[in-house]
Amino acid sequence: MENTETAGASAPAPAGAVVEPVLELSGVKKRFGGVVALNGVSFSLRPGEVHALVGENGAGKSTLIKILCGIIQRDAGSITLGGEAYDPHTPGDAKKAGIQVVHQEFNLLPYLSVAENICFEDMPRKAFGMVDFRTLYEKARKALDAIGLGDVDVRRPVESLGVAHRQLVEIARALMGESRILILDEPTATLTARETERLFQIIAALKAKGVAVVFVSHHLNEVFSICDRVTVLRNGESVMTADIAATTTDQLVTNMVGRQLAAAMAASRDLDTGGRTALSLRNLRHPASPHAEGVSFDLRYGEILGIAGLVGSGRTELLRSIFAADLPLSGTLERDGQPRRYSNPKQAIRDGIGFVTEDRKEEGLILDMAIAANVTLASLRKVSRLGLLNKREETRLAQQLGGEIKLKYGNTADPVSTLSGGNQQKVVLAKWLANNPKILLLDEPTRGVDVGAKAEIYALLRGLSEKGLALLIVSSELPELITLSDRILVMSKHRIAGEVAREDFSEERILNFAYKDERNHGHH
Amino acid sequence: MDTTDLTTAPAGSKTIATTTKTVLREAGIGIALIALIIVFSFTPHFLSSSNVTNILTQVTINLVLSIGMTFVILIGGIDLSVGSVLSFCAVVAGTVMTLPGLDPAVAVFLATISAIVAGIGFGLLNGLISAWWAIPSFIVTLGTLNIARGAALQVTNASTIYSFPAAFNAFGSQTFYGIPLLFLIALVLVAIGWFVLTKTVFGRVLYGIGNNEEAARLAGHNVFFYKVAAFTICGVLVGIGAIIYMARLNIASPIIGIGFELNAIAAVIIGGTSLSGGRGSVVGTLLGACIIGVLANGLILLGLSDFMRQMITGFVIILAVILDKYRERLTKA
Amino acid sequence: MDTTDLTTAPAGSKTIATTTKTVLREAGIGIALIALIIVFSFTPHFLSSSNVTNILTQVTINLVLSIGMTFVILIGGIDLSVGSVLSFCAVVAGTVMTLPGLDPAVAVFLATISAIVAGIGFGLLNGLISAWWAIPSFIVTLGTLNIARGAALQVTNASTIYSFPAAFNAFGSQTFYGIPLLFLIALVLVAIGWFVLTKTVFGRVLYGIGNNEEAARLAGHNVFFYKVAAFTICGVLVGIGAIIYMARLNIASPIIGIGFELNAIAAVIIGGTSLSGGRGSVVGTLLGACIIGVLANGLILLGLSDFMRQMITGFVIILAVILDKYRERLTKA
Amino acid sequence: ADKPVVGLVMKSLANEFFKNMLEGAKAHEAKRGDYTLKAVGMQSETDVETQINAIESFITQKVDAIVVAPSDSRALVPPIKRAVDAGITVVNFDVALDDKAKEEAGLKLAFVGPDNREGAKMAGDALAKKLGAGAKVVIIEGNPGADNAAQRKLGFMDSVAAGKLDLLDSRTAHWETEEANTVFSNMLTAHPDIQGVMAANDSMVLGVVKAIEAAGKTGKIEVVGFDNIPAVQPLLKEKKLLATVDQFGQLMAANAIDKALGVVAGGKPLEGWVKTDIKLVTSDDVK
Ligand SMILES: Nc1ncnc2c1ncn2[C@@H]1O[C@H](COP(=O)(O)OP(=O)(O)OP(=O)(O)O)[C@@H](O)[C@H]1O
Ligand SMILES: Nc1ncnc2c1ncn2[C@@H]1O[C@H](COP(=O)(O)OP(=O)(O)OP(=O)(O)O)[C@@H](O)[C@H]1O
Ligand SMILES: O[C@@H]1[C@H](O)[C@H](O)CO[C@H]1O
Ligand SMILES: [Mg+2]
Ligand SMILES: [Mg+2]
Q: ABC transporter domain: which residues (chain A) (predicted)?
């Protein structure tokens, strides 16, 4: 299903002739100060359809959704819901009107239990406003079972869950309410194939019940596999709406970016085998790893080494232990053949390592600070003398790197928070490139990044490896790893479960390794 | 095989750990309290029943204020005005209680009501201003701290109010098997606070707001209402605290309560509630208030100089929180 | 044409908006200050040159402490100990300055050094404890508040130190075209603070840590070091503040400085620095300190009763921050 | 309209003692009718800054006379010197400025006020007389560092020596009712055999008496205080308070203002210590 070429419209369009739309928008506009986020969007949603909303980063998808659920108010345009004017002023209004949303950003309560998170909107009550914990746990249990998280204890605090499980908890929460319309803003960005598939089953079931679903994703293959219709947003305008069956990937992409996209995604590269070993791990064990043997592998200059694995297989932890973001429990690390023991990220950075983290907002960027300040954050020594900042040099460096990575921005003095997701991700990359690293660790480098920017990032990464950098890429998107990597290691439960050479790349092989452990241990 | 097995093993073991952790959260502070008691028990008189009565009496007012402060801190706020507002509530109640011609019972009843109403008034003010304009409550309550103190002075023209009904004065020193009645009232308030925070929807939403305000708002909760409510609850407790103060000391004056806010905040934080909100409990606050009370009492009994006492108090406050950190690490490992 | 062209049009206007915003951030508070001055200028004497000298003198100590407090609040901390530590630094310096047999110049020099060293000592203590154990600085500095006060009382046995060299005493009341010399020193400190925070790598990283500690750490910055440094800088300024206090009042005593922390925090927050860290400036702090100083002075000149004065102070603190919110909204639209 | 202006600088107006003083001064202003009063108080006993600021403001406003009860006997000397240099008549009352500090500053100033040490000794002696030699007593002190607190402690110590009392403990409760209650309760635990308490002011007496009541020792422990505030009148009547000292605060400021106006009108400058009245008030004085 990852292959867009073969994907067709898997779900037939609703039978019968014209159905009354449940939701209808026309000419919706929204500005944030000087930024035009929406500039005339028209959109209609029919009951029982799954309607994809696609567009580049910053096209206005999330803004549109925020208007629909009452977080922000539109400046112009009309919206009708079930034929009546609809003008929500609070998220509560939207919920009363039967609209449920899974937002792009996490909206969880980390110290509360999974059950409380799931039922947070409407906790079951007893007399005197007391929480009916029994019902609460039952409901949460059912909700989790329904999305396939049967083994997560509902009393456990959400803070103890990994990123994917958190996303699933959010989805479970949105499914709690009886809704007419379910909006999912990039729900699959943090999920791996298996959870995604499960989600699609749920969507199909809802659809059968007549619920209308709005589905936002940067993965067009997903759009083709579950959606009935698609609307493309570009620069805040709706530029096309079509039945899925009547459109193609190329057509969508062309409409999204407003031009033909080079076939960057598919380009293969020459296998590089000549480089010296840049990094060598022997039995490196993250504190969260249950296995004393840890992880061992070599990474060569000029090589792109992919790391695949299921959610929670310990890939993020592996990168963190290399970078000394978390200190490894045991094992050794060699850099250019020399043994190293970094005691903090600073030493790893000095040693030529960069780390693009998986969560750019929490760990990668300083959102309130200027683009330039973010770009130079890890290389302030380069733009300063005797501790004094050279702002001109800083701006120059930021502009230069911005050009190299094709960053779309207004001014390097603007806060990085004003950029779209994909461009924010590029700033994170620029931050490390500014330091001329020899090794780059990348954790989900294209999460939430649109197709256009993704292609650009791929090209960029290839370019880096051709310049001799050693790249270690963790990704949950197998096509991404397959496109980029020279070699793929598959992790399972904090161990290397297998290695796949480029000539043997196939999703099936990789998944086989990924699931190996579970098969052997055979739960259920 | 199902998609759910991914974290089976860790999840199972983690659950137990989680429960233990929750229990230990309070237990850790309890251990610090017990350690302190053991140290002081070598001091003569410390464990005598009359001294236990003393300690409990001395803990009472701080405890009552700390319960309210817990609500405010849980939603990520802070209330610096509690000491001044206590004073304002007391002089209002004192004025009512000494109105000529009132039947004592009626006077006490009306005074109690008016103290609570005054507390609610300032609680509302704090909550409304900080929630409406999204201003840090630190600065809002620094403002109302001054307003309440000035108002208390203005109302009384700086004089002390006394001569309350005899029954009311007697009530303040009453004990029940050596436990001061006022402390029992405070314990009931702890129980109510615990119940509200852990068992009611209202309480869970409060925690939720402290965890992630935006998420709570997106879930359709009226964050504004809850914030105002937390400050108002704090105001109610300040009002009750004022009546307890009057019952204990038989005066009401515009200069009482100076610095009470820091004591209350210290009790809450030592009790393990996070200053950034979302985590903590009233039971922890109870233990925190007891640590402060035991410390003050024990150091006087030890016969240390006032200056040494102040220094040691500082050390122990820090030490209690450091110990709590080690306990936290232990339970994590 | 370049890759940057896609958003040029809105971006261009954004840039201007951004710059305007930055300027307005301080300008807004400046406007509040000017409004206050205009209101008071109807009071006789308010604008007289001798009164201006008064106001500047009265602002000085709070300003010096507020500069240090700005550093601490920028990294998301708070320092409640500044008042007590100022007192401790002053009695240490006073003791040194009055050592028998010292040449006056040497005595003053050694005293200044020792005040700053004492300030650094407590700053280090605050920073190390809160950074090492990741304890809220609120509680750590609440502890050192008590420790420093107790230590100051112990060192002096609660007596006041005086009889400083005549030249030192005279220096404290010197003016320069009506501007107090001490205030000029404070202005220099503001300028240094502004320079460090806006022009150096050190300052940049401090802001970064205040905004997003984890991102700063993963970019290779030693968060521990910066946190300790911020508290230590605050300590240095407290030490300098102690010397300024002594020069102005010609005494050093263990009971001075009570409540100074709240004034300093108020100046920083009114000056637009965010209590949660990462946003703000020393220039804003300067304006915030002036607002507080002008208010205190003007209300005395107005001849209002002390109670009214206290109430109005409370109102204005809140009002200043509310006004700032409206300015913020205006600049956003 | 040419009436002379008198600036009155007091300590904490939150203290009833000063509030009474202010009322006395206002009544005096109305009665004399030939001067304008401008009064300033502080927010706490230790708020030296506000006092200094107030004096500086009065200099700015060119008042004719300043009457000041200093919160610190040394810190106020330089600003007062500036006022005198500006030609303003200054009278120091309630708490005396430090002689040595005055001398160093070249300041000559009279003090109009009570003898706190003597007053405290009067109260202490009353206690000693009631209890007899060898009685076990404690002292509750005022703010450490405050001159009148120190004087009163010395006065109590004089009584302890003269009456051969057994002093068990001496601690500060910062002039505060609640703190006095706590401190004394704890003292009572450590020394269950306390027979007498000397409190440096009556606010603290209120807390002490309540602690005695709570411990069920009413009538077994004698208490003396200082200030004779209204709130202790019932305690005197019920014999829960043995004695207190009235320093006629209401008249004190009025007195000092009279003296200052005399100088302003061309009278001779004051010198030395113009002692004001103090009087022991016992249960017998209250009916
Ligand atoms: N609160 C805001 N203030 C200013 N600009 C904003 C705000 N929210 C969104 N924008 C801007 O509006 C535009 C649309 O953003 P939006 O988040 O809707 O894009 P999106 O299509 O969801 O992108 P992505 O795929 O990256 O999630 C962007 O230029 C964004 O920077
Ligand atoms: N903050 C946390 N607290 C406790 N456990 C966590 C936390 N974050 C992750 N985990 C757990 O650690 C394990 C590894 O998670 P990690 O996120 O490293 O996996 P990953 O392979 O990188 O997957 P992902 O695609 O989610 O990043 C999982 O069992 C996860 O539940
Ligand atoms: O003389 C007064 C009173 O006795 C008061 O109780 C404390 O402050 C002193 O200055
Ligand atoms: Mg989006
Ligand atoms: Mg990961």
A: 23-260, 276-518
DSSP string, B15-28: HHHHHHHHHHHHHH
Distance from CA of A386 to the nearest CA of C (A): 9
Q: Map D35-70 to HEC letters.
A: CEEEEEEECCCCCHHHHHHHHHHHHHCCCCEEEECC
Counting ligands in written order, the one closest to the CA of B8 is 2
Kindly provide the ipTM of the predicted complex, given to two decimals. Answer: 0.82
Comparing alpha-carbon positions, the chain C residue that sits nearest to A358 is C215
* Nearest alpha carbon to residue C78 among C63, C87, C88, C68: C68
Q: What is the pLDDT of residues A92-147, one digit of tens each?
A: 899 889 999 988 777 889 899 999 999 998 899 998 899 999 999 999 999 998 88
> Across the interface, do D56 and C54 touch by the CB < 8 Å criterion?
yes
> What domains lie within chain B, and their CATH numbers?
33-332 (1.10.3470)
- The answer to whether the Cβ–Cβ distance between B162 and D231 falls below 8 Å is yes
- Chain pair B-D, CB pairs under 8 angstroms: 95
Going by C-alpha positions, the residue among C112, C117, C116, C140 that lies closest to residue C227 is C140
Partner chains of D (3+ C-beta pairs under 8 Å): B, C
The answer to whether the CB of C21 falls within 8 A of the CB of C331 is yes
Neighboring chain B residues of C129 at a CB cutoff of 8 Å:
318, 322
Q: Which of D44, D50, D57 is the mutation pick for testing C, counting most C CBs within 10 A?
A: D57
The amino acid present at D112, given as its one-letter code, is V
Please answer yes or no on whether D44 and C258 come within 8 Å at the CB atom.
yes
pTM: 0.85
* CA angle, residues B143, B152, D244, in degrees to nearest 5: 130
The closest CB to that of D183, out of B61, B172, B300, belongs to: B300
Distance A55 CA to ligand 1 centre (A): 12
Domains of chain A, CATH where assigned:
108-167 (no CATH), 265-523 (3.40.50.300)
Kindly report, residue by residue over D3-40, the tens digit of the pLDDT.
Answer: 899 999 988 766 777 878 888 899 999 999 999 998 88
Atom of ligand 3 nearest to the CA of D226: 4
Please state the φ and ψ torsions of residue A437, each to the nearest 5 degrees.
Answer: -75, 160
Give one DSSP letter per residue of A287-315, joined into a string: TT-S-TT-EEEEEETT-EEEEEE-TTSSH
| B306/D144 CB distance under 8 A | yes
Half-sphere exposure (Cβ direction) of B207: Cα atoms closer than 13 Å: 25
Residues A296, A282: Cα–Cα separation, whole Å:
4
Residues of D in contact with B300 (CB under 8 A): 171, 183, 186-187, 190
C163 and D100: CB-CB below 8 Å? yes
Model pLDDT, residue A189? 76
Mean pLDDT of chain D: 89
**A323 contact partners, CB below 8 Å, separation of at least 6:** A342, A345, A348, A353, A355, A441, C218
Element (H, E) at C179: strand C179-180
Mutation for testing the D interface, residue in C51, C160, C262 having most D CBs under 10 Å: C160
> Taking 60 as the threshold, does the pLDDT of residue A523 lie above it?
no
Interacting residues of D75 by C-beta distance below 8 A, sequence separation 6+: C160, C249, C250, C251, C253, D48, D52
Cα angle for residues D251, D253, D257 (degrees, 5° grid): 115
For residue D199, the SS3 value is strand
Closest listed ligand to the CA of A308: 2
Contact A490, A510 (CB under 8 A): yes
Residue A397 near residue A425 (C-beta atoms within 8 A)? no
Burial of C16 (0-12, 13-18, 19+ CB in 10 A): exposed
End-to-end, the C-alpha distance of chain C in Å comes to: 31
Cβ pair C287, C26 in contact under 8 A: yes
Between CA D251 and CA D242 the distance in angstroms is 24
For A363, which DSSP code?
I
